[in-house]
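Journal club prep, notes for RB
We'll compare a predicted complex against what the paper describes. Inputs for the guanosine-5'-diphosphate case:
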Amino acid sequence: QEIAIGGENVSAERTLILVKPDGVARGLSGTILARVEAKGYSLVDLKLVHATREILEAHYAGHVGKPFYEPLVEFMLSGPVLAAVFEGERVIEGFRSLAGSTEPTTAAPGTIRGDLGRDWGLKVQQNLVHGSDSPESAEKEISIWFS
Ligand code: GDP
Ligand code: MG
């Protein structure tokens, strides 16, 4: 594997990563960013943002109508979120693998959710991170958070 210093090669893709309010409140922002960087992805944009309902309605449009939608939006409004764009070959899949499965209690050890998360009062939404799930979602989500 080639290590590109100061830039990625032409096949690099980008993803939108969020450290959710639980991660920021627990002081895990730096740890989480460090784990993504340590895997070899490059940070290309970063900001701390208190999301608006408008941003979250756009970001979670695919989940409208699900039972967890409203609690999820309320949770995401409960404190600041760290929004980051990372770049690298297959970073979308690579970050989702690093993040672990959705439910933090049972996410595999070695993953961000598995190592750092658990259920707090059965609130599955408090799973520390978000990562785009496809190139189409990544493009849409980067434009929502970094317009
Ligand atoms: P992800 O891609 O692993 O983040 O999971 P999804 O796209 O399926 O869901 C989006 C987010 O909604 C998750 O990261 C959780 O924060 C939350 N969520 C998903 N499923 C549930 C659930 O069954 N209950 C609750 N409370 N939250 C959920
Ligand atoms: Mg998802």
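Talking point for the session: The chain has one domain: 18-145.
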